Amino acid sequence: MGIVGYFVAAVFVALAAAMVGRVTAQDWRSASQDPVGLAPDPAITPGPVVQVYAARVIGWRGVFGVHTWIAVKPAAATEYTVYEIIGWRLRWQDTALVVRHRAPDMRWFGSVPELVAEKRGAGVEELIPRIDKAAHSYPWAGEYTMWPGPNSNTFTAWVLRAVPELEADLPPTAIGKDYFGKKLIGSAPSGRGFQFSLFGLAGLTASTVEGFEVNLLGLTFGINPFDPALKLPLVGRVGPTRAFATKVNEAKVNETSTGEHAL
């Protein structure tokens, strides 16, 4: 057991050293927040869109974790609405919940975002008010704890549990996604499947979206046979590019958005 412990520690040190090279400490005031082209242009996309994003947080904490958020665009809307928890907002107001219009795919203080999930087309419009309702009913908007939660990833998982149709598999680096207060048993962060969690510090997840995960002190190890990937702390998801099952029926979206078949 001692040899195994030393081996695991050595692996973590090696992974941390590798990740330090990928996460650059930046001055948040000058870090880029430019869009990276992952979101459809609302000017030429009349149909509804929902997207879930993750990006490494700024500074040394980015070695371990990501910040996640949800963006929605109703049919015919000319801009996106983004829902997220920003902890430092609690310094001057009583809620960390931020709902605003912004580019959904902008860099998170220099970090390039990853598209975690996307839904477009038929049936998506009805998900948007449910996302809004879940976001505004988030019970920990007045508190923020980087580890083990509640934090920005706890918020995203809360919304995803309420809208399981999004089928979002949050990255293993989304520390806080497994936190759901005093409950011990509930649904997986995607809303599909089962999860046991001890205050976000230890737990097990089995889901047709996430696959199988083990949480140890907020660090996630797992394997997803349904969307093949290995899940590791620090490194994140290792596998092929995520497969998004949703295909847009543009003709139907255009008809719906222009009201040609509206009642």
> What does the overall shape look like?
globular
- Describe the main β-sheet briefly: 7 strands, antiparallel
Helix run count: 4
Work out the number of β strands.
12
Distance between the termini: 68 Å
What is the chain-wise order of helices and strands?
A: HEEEEEHHEEEEEEEH
Helix content: 10-25%
Q: How large a portion of the residues is in β-strands, by DSSP E?
A: 15-25%
**For the residues shown, what is the average pLDDT?**
86
Spatial extent as radius of gyration: 19 Å
Q: Indicate the low-confidence ranges by residue numbers.
A: 245-263
Q: Please identify the structural class as seen in this structure.
A: alpha+beta
Looking across the biggest beta sheet, what order are the strands in? 6-7-8-9-10-11-12
What's the topology here?
Elements: H1 2-20, E1 49-56, E2 66-73, E3 81-85, E4 97-101, E5 114-120, H2 127-136, H3 152-162, E6 185-187, E7 194-197, E8 202-207, E9 211-216, E10 219-224, E11 229-232, E12 236-238, H4 250-258
Antiparallel strand pairs: 1-2, 1-5, 2-3, 3-4, 6-7, 7-8, 8-9, 9-10, 10-11, 11-12
How would you concisely characterize the structure shown here?
This protein has 263 residues and is of the alpha+beta class.
